[in-house]
Inverse folding.
């Protein structure tokens, strides 16, 4: 990843590390920088949010809106500390950019051909998994927020799903997020919307219109299950945005997502 693609105002927050695993011989696209922003909003701020994007390399439609919104909003009053990884699968991103449009271009896989979001398994050798585990070691967050895009999503729809380890009070922030999304003409759904045949449905508990997924064997290996299961965050919220919108159409959507992160929303408890 080239440094220059990131907005300049974020420079002071930025840390880079050349993660050793990314440089291994069997990874096809070295050298790649795995970049994250460690944004500290106040020395005594006890609230921490983990924010991820581009776990799946073809899901980059809102990248510019997300980077711009982060630049403008990350240090506003009421924001928690944010650990932000804008390109969560750099080997996948490199492979995707190289093979875009070709028949062997798998949409969701990293450089090793695996779906990163399902690779958090014991013994995984995926460079991003090892980098993530190394980065998250010893860290704790109130929430993690994972932004994806769903290309099966048509119309003005957005859906979310939540992983939680224990039963917790209903997530009031989903209501306020839904209101702000409704305000710009979109509708929110929970993930049964796209996955009605899912055998784990019985394990899910609706909370204020958002289905909550407790740890379940079906989710072994999923990034969210790892984060919640290892108690890195109490909850992991995944939001699936639409694809193929115009660049400017993502701006209000992304602003609503960042409104969620502000502590006034109730997202950070
Ligand atoms: Zn995805």
């Amino acid at each position: 990843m080239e440094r220059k693609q990131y907005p300049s105002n974020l420079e002071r927050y930025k840390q880079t590390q050349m993660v050793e695993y990314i440089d291994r011989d069997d990874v096809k696209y070295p050298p790649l920088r795995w970049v994250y922003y460690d944004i500290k909003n106040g020395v005594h701020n006890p609230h921490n949010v983990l924010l991820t994007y581009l776990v799946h390399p073809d899901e980059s439609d809102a990248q510019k809106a997300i980077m711009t919104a982060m630049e403008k909003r990350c240090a506003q009053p009421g924001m928690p500390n944010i650990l932000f990884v804008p390109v969560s699968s750099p080997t996948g991103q490199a492979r995707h950019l190289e093979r875009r449009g070709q028949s062997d271009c798998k949409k969701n896989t990293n450089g090793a051909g695996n779906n990163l979001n399902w690779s958090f398994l014991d013994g995984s050798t995926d460079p991003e998994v090892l980098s993530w585990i190394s980065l998250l070691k010893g860290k704790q967050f109130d929430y993690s927020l994972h932004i994806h895009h769903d290309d099966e999503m048509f119309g003005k729809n957005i859906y979310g799903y939540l992983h939680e380890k224990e039963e917790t009070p209903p997530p009031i922030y989903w209501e306020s997020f839904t209101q702000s999304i409704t305000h710009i003409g979109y509708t929110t759904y929970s993930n049964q919307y796209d996955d009605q045949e899912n055998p784990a449905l019985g394990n899910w508990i609706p909370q204020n219109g958002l289905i909550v997924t407790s740890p379940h064997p079906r989710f072994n290996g999923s990034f969210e299950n790892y984060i919640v299961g290892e108690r890195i965050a109490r909850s992991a919220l995944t939001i699936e945005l639409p694809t193929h919108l115009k660049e400017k159409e993502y701006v209000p959507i992304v602003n609503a997502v960042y409104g969620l992160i502000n502590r006034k929303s109730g997202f950070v408890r």
